[in-house]
Amino acid sequence: MYKPDMTCTFQNKIRINTLSPKPGITIWYSRIPNIIHSIFSKGTYHNFRSMVNEIFQKDDFIEPFLSDEEINTINNFKALKKQMEWISGRYLIKRMTQYFFFKNSCLDQITLSYLEQGAPFLTNHPDIPVSLSHSNDYTAAACCKNKNQTIGLDIEKITKKPDDNFMKIAFTQNEILNLKNDAGPVPIFKNWTIKEAYLKYIKKGFNESLHRVEVINNEIRHNKKKTNVDVYSTFIDDDYVLSLVSD
């Protein structure tokens, strides 16, 4: 079973696991239910995946960490699942950047904005590279101390092998042929996280065609040209895969 580089626990007992894939880059990941249980002043939301949305206020949280604009954003989501994923991801990236960059700032003063094609950045410090991801029970965040770097992060829960329709949409014929050499869903989900991480790395997300990006044997080709990037992948709890793409 995978063992993280280290773990840390904050005063509200949220266990955060830390990875250091290369000098200057740090990844934090934590279980969404654990974050939810620790940050709300009332309610446990154990069944949040099957519940409709709620209207939140700042005093619903033990420690204020969302701005008024962010509160408005989550209150416009139509499902509690989406709200909890968004809240947990924001808490993790804010806590992370406070820890590494803004020790004298309150969490609700650290906010994120989005580029036109959806890539997040720190509103008042767009030069600090950050990336976010979530899947099922986990949320993950990455930051980089080198402001000249670019990073992209993705985490996915490994489930049953995707059907042929998904494979044709998500991968090129070259990728599918390569993946057929490996039995089971693990290589498929690993390649998918690498591809998603790269799409975040180029700050386009799904605005870029999935068939313009090929991942074969941990190498990435974009528009049929080999890219000069580093790829890091690891497994968490045996049924999640996390990938980071960086310069």
Q: SSE layout and pairings?
A:
Layout: E1 6-9, E2 15-22, E3 25-31, H1 32-39, H2 68-75, H3 80-100, E4 112-114, E5 120-122, E6 130-135, E7 138-144, E8 151-157, H4 164-170, H5 173-179, H6 186-201, E9 213-216, E10 219-222, E11 225-226, E12 230-236, E13 240-246
Q: From the 3D coordinates, which CATH architecture of the largest domain would you assign?
A: Alpha-Beta Complex
Strand content: 25-35%
Instruction: Look at the structure and give the mean pLDDT.
Output: 89
CATH overall fold name of the largest domain: Ribosomal Protein L22, Chain A
How many individual β-strands? 13
Count up the domains.
2
Query: Alpha-carbon distance between the termini?
Result: 28 Å
Physical arrangement of strands within the biggest beta sheet: 1-2-3-7-6
Text of the CATH class of the largest domain: Alpha Beta
User: Rough shape?
Assistant: globular
- Strand/helix succession: EEEHHHEEEEEHHHEEEEE
User: Total number of helical segments?
Assistant: 6
> What portion of residues is helical?
25-40%
Question: Runs with pLDDT <50, length 5+?
Answer: none
By helix and strand content, what is the structural category? alpha+beta
Please describe what this structure looks like.
- The strands form four sheets. Strands 1-2-3-7-6 form a five-stranded antiparallel beta sheet. It has a three-stranded antiparallel beta sheet with strand order 8-13-12, covered by helices on one side.
- Helices cover 27% and strands 28% of the residues.
- With 247 residues, the chain is α+β, with helices and mostly antiparallel strands.
- The chain folds into two domains: 6-149, Alpha-Beta Complex (Ribosomal Protein L22, Chain A); 158-229, no CATH class.
